[in-house]
Amino acid sequence: MSAISAMPGAIVEWLGGQQTLDGIRFLTEYPAENKAVPLRSPIVAVGLGSVSITDKFIENNNGVLERQEYCRTASLRMRFDIHVPFSEGGSCCHEIFTKVLDLLTFASDLNLRASGCADVSAHRDTDAFVLGAWAEVTADFCPAESTGLTLASFLPKELLCGSHIVNQEIHLTAPEKARLAEPFVMGTYLGDGLGIKNIAVGFRPSCVFVWCSKMPAVHPNFTTNTAQSLFGCVVDLPSGDGNSMGMEIIPTGFRLRTGSTYNVAPTISALNLSGTAYVYLAIK
Asked: Are 233 and 209 in contact (CB under 8 A)?
């Protein structure tokens, strides 16, 4: 059974579980099921009349309609053949159809665009009144979207948007999702004056900025003709060329180094002065 032809069965199962429709038997047009003759209770046979799938267009901010690459609009005409025993009268056919429409409209997420029915006719072979009715359902089919009515096999998404589902390269990985949820971390630390100080941020940053709280980026000393660098930036490049004066990226955060090796005369790296407060911004 194809995915589309499975929809009547799903609707039959859903309607059969509604308390307001107790006493009514729901079945599908195909495969055929046996019916009692003469008919003793109402029966509703659900079938699929037609299916139309078209491109979906949405108006952009400039008023121009743009075709949606991964979404389609479907229009489906569902058939409802309602059989009622002669003893209950022909008006019972319309009452049942009204109840079915009310439930599908207000108790499910299906979008009923139109509905209608033919005249009630009498079938002597089954001693029943019969009403042929229909309802047109429209829906947008996009990745990760479904209706409240359980129609898991309504349309296979690979039929409409398989390139999106199959091509994993256009999906976000877990690290990428985490980066979008929290793209950076800010914090503070207190300098201890040691030659090496590691700052853990819980991940390997792509870039780190460090600056001294309430101080300029460079503090000159005109007596010694030197200057303290109170600001630093390091970028995680594969070549290692992103290392800054006295800073480097490590797997869990970043490392600060002090000493003559990490100075560029006449500037002295001063990112770990004892008792000095610093602020950092680590980007994932």
From this structure: yes
**Phi, psi at residue 68, to the nearest 5°?**
-85, 125
Which CATH superfamily groups domain 7-170?
A: Phage tail protein-like (3.30.2000.10)
Domain with CATH 3.30.2000.10 in the chain: 7-170
Contact 38, 126 (CB under 8 A): yes
Full-prediction pTM beyond 0.85? no
Binning pLDDT at 50, 70 and 90, where does residue 146 land? very low
Query: How far apart are the C-alpha atoms of 54 and 112, rounded to whole Å?
Result: 17
d(CA 198, CA 125): 89
Within 8 A by CB and 6+ apart from 252, the residues are: 198, 200, 201, 202, 203, 204
| Rounded distance between C-alpha atoms, residue 284 and residue 281, angstroms | 10
**Residue 45 neighbours by CB under 8 Å, 6+ apart:** 27, 28, 29, 79, 80, 81, 83
Task: With beta carbons less than 8 A apart as the criterion, state whether 234 and 244 touch.
Answer: yes
The CB density around residue 228, as the number of other CB atoms within 10 Å, is 19
**Is beta strand 218-221 parallel, antiparallel or unpaired with respect to 277-283?**
unpaired
CA 121 to the chain's CA centroid = 47
Average pLDDT, whole number, for the chain?
82
